[in-house]
Write a structure and sequence with these properties.
The protein is mostly helical. It contains 15 helices and two strands. The chain has a two-stranded antiparallel ribbon with strand order 1-2.
């Protein structure tokens, strides 16, 4: 994702209505991804945790939006300070930005860039929530989101995409968030679950998804929104790079579905809908950092590799004993690592930049840069996220009680249930023709459903 670039006055671009409209559409698509994620995760949990899972994503729309306006945009994309953070007073509260002021080097207003990036900041902590299903206090989760975006997401976004950020200046390629979004969220998820522990009944009780149609709906909406996430990250549509990214997004995702299902059939004997949905997400994750640097053939390879290896990785939690409820580590961390590193193999040097991967004569240089980016973000997010979770757990507590977890977190934390089985509207209350052998109810009395 290109940061602002200072240009000479004579070469300064003018506002493009076409690019501005395109970016606003992409922004709306990325916004859709957070409720889509809520559906995806919500269908994967048991009935008693459905609403909590939905709310853990939805609350990010509120918290991160406000923090982004107050100071997040300034920390992530303000004037560089020491290559690790940004700060610009004009960005605080978005109060010093002109209505038609352009993002440096581009033809879209600063406001449009800011709100597009806001949607990335909203989505990233929501991704973490899937690893913590069934067992986290909602208040503690909300506070964790606020702290995490402040001390982890905003600085990492500056490292990767901000002008002067140390990973950006090194030449690490991350088109739309393999490091800043997916490795960041996946490593955070691992850090938190190592602190808060396993669900009651992990590896003993069945914890199957309660609604696979909801999972498929969420996956489909994520796939749809991801076109804005990826293609929009070039911040315009003038040179065809965004179009290549759009194509590669579709190609890699389709290939990953096939790769995941093939592995699943060989390993377990069935093609599952959950596998198809998970494979799609794995492909979307893996192509996110790489799609602007590779060809469609490279996208197929990345998709297949991600589909197979992420399918293998989701089983690691049973081998190593960490309870990643909805496979955030197996899909987002592993998929983000794969996509980021595979840039070092498949970059053609003919799309977003002239950097070439190993298979295109570029040697190991780009692969080395990608590895540094992967390790830096993974280590920072893992450690800081674990520290945040530890502090919250020792102060206000991160987990609900065992009784609440067993009985269902929805009723206690939200005073609601996802589905009403009490009978209201659930059956006929005015049957006029009795079944054979039955006696019709008196017409002046209500029949309970």
């Amino acid at each position: 994702m290109p940061p602002g670039i200072t240009t000479l006055a004579a070469d300064a671009p003018e506002l493009s209505a076409a690019n501005t409209g395109f970016m606003l559409i992409c922004t709306a698509l990325v916004m859709l991804m957070t409720p889509a994620l809520a559906f995806f995760y919500g269908g994967m949990v048991r009935v008693k945790s459905t609403l909590n899972m939905l709310m853990m994503s939805f609350i990010s729309l509120g918290i991160v939006t406000v923090l982004w306006v107050l100071y997040g945009f300034s920390l992530a994309f303000g004037t560089d300070v020491g290559s690790v953070i940004g700060w610009s007073s004009d960005f605080v509260g978005l109060s010093g930005i002109g209505v038609t002021e352009l993002w440096d080097g581009y033809t879209i207003p600063v406001y449009v860039f800011a709100v597009f990036q806001m949607m990335f900041a909203i989505l990233t902590p929501a991704l973490i929530s899937g690893a913590l299903a069934d067992r986290v206090k909602f208040t503690s989760w909300a506070l964790f989101v606020a702290l995490w975006v402040t001390v982890v997401y905003f600085p990492v976004a500056h490292w990767v995409w901000g002008a002067g950020g140390w990973l950006f200046e090194m030449g690490v390629i991350d088109f739309a968030g393999g490091t800043a979004v997916h490795i960041n969220a996946g490593a955070a998820a691992l850090g938190v679950i190592l602190v808060i522990g396993k669900r009651v009944g992990f590896k003993k009780d069945p914890m199957r998804p309660h609604s696979l149609p909801l999972v498929m709906l969420g996956a489909a909406l994520l796939w749809f929104g991801w076109f804005g996430f990826n293609a929009g990250s070039w911040l315009g549509n003038d040179d065809g790079v965004g179009a290549v990214m759009f194509v590669n997004t579709q190609v890699a995702t389709g290939a990953a579905v096939l790769g995941w299902l093939a592995y699943e059939k060989i390993r377990h004997g069935s093609f599952t809908t959950l596998g198809a949905a998970s494979g799609a997400v794995a492909g979307l994750v893996a192509i996110t950092p790489a799609g602007g640097a590779v060809s469609p053939l490279g996208a197929i390879a990345i998709g297949v590799i991600a589909g197979v290896l992420c399918a293998m990785a989701v089983g690691l939690k049973y081998r190593f004993g960490y309870d990643d409820s909805l496979d955030v580590v197996g899909v987002h961390l592993v998929g983000g690592i794969l996509g980021s590193l595979l840039v070092g193999f498949f970059a053609t040097g003919g799309v977003q930049s002239d950097a070439k991967g190993l298979f295109y004569g570029g040697g190991l240089e780009q692969l080395g840069k990608q590895a540094v980016g992967v390790l830096a973000v993974l280590a920072y997010s893992l450690v800081v996220s674990a520290v945040l979770a530890f502090v919250l757990d020792r102060t206000i507590g991160m987990r609900v009680s065992e009784d609440v977890e067993v009985s269902g977190i929805d009723q206690v934390e939200h005073a609601e249930t996802a589905y009403d089985f009490s009978g209201a509207g659930g059956g006929s209350a005015s049957r006029t023709t009795p079944a054979p052998g039955a006696t019709a109810a008196p017409t002046n009395k209500k029949v309970d459903a």
